[in-house]
């Protein structure tokens, strides 16, 4: 039985590249005999000729936003429409090596829930600010998930449609869609693999705003930390304030022989943040869905499922 894969391409003002991107992906799909593909392009309120070009292309499904709603919103529209087992997302700007789709699918078939194209090559920005920003974000994710992710927000990846369904309520409408999917998958124990891909310079103008998007990514990671493991966020903040409060109290005792108002405020605030963290952690542990076993060699295998059931029965 042939497997199925939906190819989702968000499009916003990409009239210089979209036709070539679609034709390339159609030629690649024609060479992969084991899969039944559907190409879904989402015109996200483009103000150039992207809509006209998409309408003239045969063999694709075109979904349209009347106004620009954002990268994540376009992906969500395509994913909600898609009914295939696997999903491949990529950009319309000609930066990703679409020919590597076959390698991503092969890796996915070996038991992974998501396979990400880790970007290398001429298209990667070498500016000191962006390199520092990427390092900071990767370290934040490492602190949350325990995994040093090589490429946090690559827009070229293959994943199970069920992965999107599980985390849909968390996925934002902007550029942080892929970052959220990555962090949620890693934290919940999903099997994620990274495959190096040759990333090229884009055709046309980028829609990314570096400073704004970086701050958005930081807020996103803090929010995910609060959602999945609140103590990892609240406890360091509480301990930091507690340490400052102790130092201030020692200084006050030495200088004026009494506790000052600032030291008391710092210590009380530290206790409150710690209490919020404990309460949030209890809520998360009470209502969070336990992820399926990520170590199954084949998540769809009945034998693997029966083995897990036997192991659980022996525990009880």
- What share of residues is helical? 40-55%
Largest sheet: 7 strands, mixed
Helix run count: 11
Outline the low-pLDDT stretches. Answer: 289-316
Numbering strands along the chain, what is their spatial order in the largest sheet? 3-2-1-4-6-5-7
| Content-based structural category | alpha/beta
Distance between the termini: 38 Å
- In terms of DSSP E residues, the strand content is 5-15%
Q: What does the average pLDDT come to?
A: 82
Shape descriptor reads elongated
Task: Summarize the structure in words.
The chain has helices at 18-31, 50-56, 71-81, 101-109, 128-145, 161-167, 177-187, 210-228, 230-256, 261-287, 302-315; strands at residues 3-11, 35-44, 61-65, 86-89, 114-120, 157-160, 192-198. It has 316 residues and is an alpha/beta fold. It has a 7-stranded mixed beta sheet with strand order 3-2-1-4-6-5-7, sandwiched between helices. The longest helix is centred in the C-terminal third of the chain and has 27 residues, at 230-256. 33% of the residues are buried. The model is unreliable at 289-316 (pLDDT under 50).
Provide a compact summary of the structure.
The chain is of the alpha/beta class and 316 residues long. The chain has eleven helices and seven strands. The longest helix is centred in the C-terminal third of the chain and has 27 residues, at 230-256.
Could you give the topology of this structure?
Layout lengths: L2 E9 L6 H14 L3 E10 L5 H7 L4 E5 L5 H11 L4 E4 L11 H9 L4 E7 L7 H18 L11 E4 H7 L9 H11 L4 E7 L11 H19 L1 H27 L4 H27 L14 H14 L1
Parallel strand pairs: 1-2, 1-4, 2-3, 5-7
Antiparallel strand pairs: 4-6, 5-6
Helix pairs in contact: 5-8, 7-8, 8-9, 9-10
């Amino acid at each position: 039985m042939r497997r199925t894969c939906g190819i989702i391409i968000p499009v916003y003002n990409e009239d210089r590249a979209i036709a070539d991107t679609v034709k390339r992906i159609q030629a690649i799909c024609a060479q992969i005999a084991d899969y039944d593909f559907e190409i879904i392009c989402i015109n996200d309120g483009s103000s150039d000729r992207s809509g006209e070009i998409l309408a003239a292309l045969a063999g694709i499904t075109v979904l349209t936003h009347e106004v620009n709603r954002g990268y994540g919103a376009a992906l969500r529209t395509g994913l909600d429409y898609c009914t295939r087992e696997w999903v491949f997302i990529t950009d319309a700007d000609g930066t990703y090596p679409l020919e590597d789709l076959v390698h991503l699918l092969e890796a996915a078939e070996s038991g992974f829930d998501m396979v990400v194209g880790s970007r290398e090559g001429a298209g990667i920005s070498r500016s000191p600010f962006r390199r520092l920003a990427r390092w900071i974000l990767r370290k934040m994710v490492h602190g949350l998930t325990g995994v040093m992710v090589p490429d946090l927000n690559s827009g070229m990846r293959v994943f199970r449609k069920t992965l999107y369904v599980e985390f849909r309520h968390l996925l934002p409408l902007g550029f942080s869609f892929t970052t959220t999917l990555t962090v949620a998958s890693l934290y919940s124990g999903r099997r994620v693999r990274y495959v190096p891909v040759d990333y090229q310079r884009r055709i046309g103008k980028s829609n990314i705003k570096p400073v704004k998007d970086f701050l958005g990514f930081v807020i996103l990671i803090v929010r995910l930390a609060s959602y999945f493991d609140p103590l990892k966020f609240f406890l360091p903040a509480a301990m930091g304030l507690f340490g400052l409060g102790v130092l201030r109290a020692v200084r006050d005792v030495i200088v004026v022989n009494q506790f000052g108002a600032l030291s008391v405020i710092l210590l009380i605030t530290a206790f409150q943040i710690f209490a919020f963290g404990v309460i949030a952690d209890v809520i998360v542990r009470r209502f969070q869905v336990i992820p399926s076993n990520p170590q199954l060699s084949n998540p769809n295998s009945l034998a693997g499922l029966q083995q897990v059931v036997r192991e659980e029965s022996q525990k009880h």
